[in-house]
Amino acid sequence: MAEVEARSVGETPRQAFLSDQIDPKRIYFFGISEGGYGSQRLASYYADYLAGAGPMAGGEPLINAPVENLQHVAFSLRTGYNDTQFHRSELTGYTRDALQRLAAQYPGYYKHFIDIIPKYGHAIPYQYTTPYLSQHVRTPQPNQVNWEDYPIDGLYRKGCYNLAPLKRPEAKERTYYQENILGNTVDLKINTVKYVEKLVSDYYKQYFHLVLLYDKVYEPAKGGKLRIYLSPELLDLSKPVRVLVNGQQVYSGMVKADWSHLVESCSRFFDPERLFPAAIDIAY
Predict the structure, then answer these.
(1) Is the model's pTM score more than 0.90?
(2) DSSP of 7-28, one letter per residue?
(3) Residue 101: CB partners within 8 Å, gap ≥ 6?
């Protein structure tokens, strides 16, 4: 069921892009209660399509919605202080803490408005979310990308922003890509991610295993292939391009624009803001 939902939600913005009735830079996910869980998960999974996301009365474990992916998404999460069922308010706090750390590490990014509302339980005032989200527009081609590539019920994305995995590291479920484009150099750090349980719920242990917090262990990824889409918005295609992966140069030379890349990126993303005339395939 989750796989079907992920596929159908992913089709929604792509189909909407075919219409001239929407602004492709103003797409937002938000929901309440179960919709809060869903919008938090899908905001991380489909971050590259979104200007903002606003789950309400939710609170997901971070393994289900890695906040690293929200670098260019205005994110609002509002939960009642007394909304303790399934640790919703506690998990909201962990999301807030993680985003605060990332915002300090990457100044100007990870915009968020997270509120644990005193005296409220599961029902909260909902009217503050959409005014916050509407202030923000999407950044479809950022020159810096943090993306944890993870599956929902075995379903992986075909790509995110300008990155498209052609082959994932063997026997590794999650890969973390950090891309920084400075001048005509594409600097990539690619690591596998392992989640290690740190804090487990005592309250629900007789019913199910609910992990509240994890530590992450990163190791340099090996055995993968990646397509890097490029455009004049990201760098100067009239000059040579360098690509580094984990500190090692894997490409240096001119990159030729070609109609095939426009067609292929269109069919991959269905996004009028991400039509890439050039691409480089690298192995690591």
Answers:
(1) yes
(2) HHHHHHHHHHHTSSSS-TT--E
(3) none
